[in-house]
Amino acid sequence: MLFDPRPKARREDLYDFDEELERFVKALGEPMILVSGLRRTGKTSLILTSLSVSRAPFIYFDLREGARSYADLYKLVSRGFTEFVKRWSGLRSRFLEALSRVRGVSIAGVEVSFSWSPRKRPLLSELLDAVNDFAERIGLRIAVVFDELQSVRGSMGVALQSALAHSYDFNKSVTLVLAGSEMGVLYSILQNPESPLYGRAYVEVRTRKLSYSEAVDFLTKGFEEAGAAVSRGEVEEAVKELDGIIGWLAYYGYLRSRGMGSVEQVVREAIALAKKELEAFLSTRVSSRYRTVLRALAQGVREWGELKRELERLEKREVSDRVVHDVLVELKRHSIVDESNEFTDPVYRRASLEL
């Protein structure tokens, strides 16, 4: 179903993206694939559908919620292993046998868990080595997906990246799939000389916004599939409000096809979600400065000097050029605005007006 709000995993549910899907599938024999793109442009759907089409066994780690502690990180990893065991029942016994040889691993039926105490927890590199050993024993290559890799930060992020670098170098039966929507942060993980993953070659597959005509076609086909009668005028209005971001278009289509109100009512729901995401981003920063800059950008302010004056009005003192520079760089690194200081997502622009 085109309007299914969950990530797609079947080819018939993935709108277009034939070129991206073909490129991903062809790259499954490479050591590492990078799937990049703005938020809600279909990265997870592309990954899951490509893996389904290829019939390649894969382990999927959903890192979107991030990890505040090693306990959080190891719970996310154990969830990914457990889902693999449940999904690939024919490979279960040999996979669990490979994992059982790693210290700190507990297996109860199909549930895999890990100790997260510093002395007992398994090294992440040891877990990836076990996956590689298993893959070699069964004669198959395994894709290991880390969705929103950049969400794991600090010392845990470095530990995870070091494990990935180790796997890249030594595990010849594993393809690493790294995905992220904060593209500046993701690229810094791969291109910063101080990063453990620096210097490793990869194949990049980028998702994109739909063109205006593609977005109209997507909504039209989705409403036909859902048996909902929606006028061409309303479809065009929705595309103008939501741009070509397929996640927002599917969200609108899903709610609208179930009688959940007008375009503006659905957009208000989307703005509430976007505002919550922005608040999470602001929670770890000097919030007042970022709010001021985001509101100014949302109101159409683009000149550096005017942004600086807005901050000085807020703080009632002189603000250095460096402060403005650092705020803008962070917004770009996290793909909230582009190099022209334009919002990458119109819903984020409207949410910023309400900060």
From TrEMBL:
Gene Ontology molecular function, alphabetical: ATP binding
Keyword check for Cell cycle: no
Domain ATPase, first and last residues per copy: 20-248
Family matches, as Gene3D superfamilies: 1.10.8.60, P-loop containing nucleotide triphosphate hydrolases, Winged helix-like DNA-binding domain superfamily/Winged helix DNA-binding domain
Entry keyword tRNA-binding: no
InterPro entries: ATPase_dom, P-loop_NTPase, WH-like_DNA-bd_sf, WH_DNA-bd_sf
Alphabetically ordered keywords of this record: ATP-binding, Nucleotide-binding
Name assigned to this protein: ATP-binding protein
Organism, as annotated: Ignisphaera aggregans
